[in-house]
Amino acid sequence: MSTAFKHDFTMMFVIHDALRRELEFLARTTARGAGDPRALVAGAAGWEMFKTYLHVHHGAEDEALWPQVRQALADRPADLALIDAMETEHATIDPLLEAVDAAVADPARAGDLSALVDALATGLRAHLKHEEEAALPLIDSVVTPQQLQAFGQAHTVRIGDGTPRYLPWVLDGASAQDTEAILGILPPPVRGLYNDAWVPSYRGLERWPASS
Question: Which of 68, 116, 143, 146 stands 20 to 30 A from 211 (CA)?
């Protein structure tokens, strides 16, 4: 997936694809003709997982990626402007998440829910595309393997003890090649847990309403 890059950004693309996947489920849930979309979103484990993992991803970038890239680009103001844009785009996402939650919680705002979900999906998809097409090539040109490793570690720390649920979630729908690349860095006992326990548990979880 990231063969055009000097560094391996497979996990970055897989995370982005997982976020896009969940946006589709969210949009279908709020567009359902039957039932109360507010109640469906409020009761969906998928919505909580989406928010949690999006915060993890963006938080790790803000903490352990953008500052290192900024340092490397200190004398390149035009390129620094792109990192400014990444941070600005991050800052626009949280209010959209909060607005969806507010509409879910307040019956008086039920009519706002579909438009808010559309705004969230539009904003996040645009950000992910911008990052992949413009920021990642720039990052690839200046970041070191050690800095990428530190970014990965920051991501792992933020996941904490949630890995048994996070890893099957992020790999749900990933290609066999990407799945093997990511699982291949894990010790054999952990891969065994992934296959024998984590994936079956994840598959038994109803993340979104059945018809979404």
Answer: 116
